Amino acid sequence: MTDLAARLKETARAVGFDAVGICTPHDIPDAQFRLRRFLAEGMHGDMHWMERRSHWRGNPNALWPEAKSVVMLADSYAPDGDPLQNLGRPKRASISVYARNRDYHDIMKKKLKRLGRWLIAERPEAEIKVFVDTAPVMEKPLAQAAGLGWQGKHTNLVSRELGSWFFLGAIFTTEPLRTDQPGIDLCGSCRRCMDVCPTDAFPAPYRLDARRCISYLTIEHKGPVDPGLRSGIGNRVFGCDDCLAVCPWNKFAAAASEMGYRERDELRSPKLADLALLSDQMFRETFKGSPVKRIGRSRFVRNVLYAIGNSSDPELIPVAEKLKNDPDPVVADAATWAVQQLGSSVPDGKSNCATVGA
């Protein structure tokens, strides 16, 4: 009879996970040092929650001292096309691939709970806790320790089989399980992920300055974005896929089989003009069930206005003009900036802005 770890892995794949590995809470001893350096240098920006719970985040044993094993699971959301294609369409918005359909937290948590129930049925004396971005857990170092891949130079996890496109979830358990060999770094001399970044968010290989990262700026950062970084955002209105998309290991990644991760047509390449004029209610309806909804209408429209300002299309000036007096001062600031950017791109200050192009 196969051991419990082997049967758990078989069950995990039957549940729908694309990869599974096992480590212990003790297997990431350098994670705490790396986290402390990251925080000390202020590279976490406004994410103060990382500081408040850093003693748990850097040490899984402190999070749950009774845990003996950590089961790390991967769920692929690989796109079926080139996610960078939208960047050449300045009147259209680019939404990160992972956010073009349902919120992955909901999908993964259901799968994690199903697998957790199976483990409890096999070992009634065992206890479990499931996590998918819901607790101070350093999923990427744990996933590397569990053999799912390695943290690349962009700090995201890379897999030989799945490339860069996958979510991570964890099951902590008091049940001792046979562990796997850790992942080995196969980045070699490649630095495509670092070189492609439009805002130079990687000060060195394997290090990320979140304050310059477009994903951070469009999702986590609440106030006005530094004017010096706005042009680098381009038409990205929620997240950024550049460093993932150029990774050579993605050639082995098959398109996601989970229907909830496949992009909705209306979120594939939406018009900036339509997104800018969303009311709060319209925003909620448009992004119901999507990760985009959590940043709220104001922050999202702020991002859309930066994209409009970067479009070099004076036909979008009337759209931005309508938001210059928005009740949210951050939105109003973004609208004013967009109008200024577009106005300065028009020869002799002239523009034909009677209609908004498709």
- Helix-strand topology string: HEHHHHEEHEHEEEHHHEHHHHHHH
Number of strands: 8
Share of residues in helices:
25-40%
Which value, in Å, is the CA radius of gyration? Answer: 22 Å
List the keywords:
358 residues, alpha+beta, NADH Oxidase, four-stranded antiparallel β-sheet, 17 helices, 37% helix, elongated, disordered C terminus
Protein described:
The structure is a single chain. The protein has 358 residues and is α+β, with helices and mostly antiparallel strands. The protein has two domains: 4-80 and 97-173, NADH Oxidase; 192-349, no CATH class. It is built from 17 helices and eight strands. It has helices at 4-15, 31-40, 49-52, 54-57, 60-63, 104-122, 139-145, 192-196, 214-220, 227-233, 242-245, 265-268, 272-276, 280-286, 296-309, 317-321, 329-344, and strands at residues 19-23, 69-76, 94-95, 128-131, 150-151, 157-158, 166-173, 236-238. The strands form three sheets. A four-stranded antiparallel β-sheet has the order 1-2-7-4, with helices on both faces. A two-stranded parallel ribbon has the order 3-8. A hairpin with a 5-residue loop joins β5 (150-151) and β6.
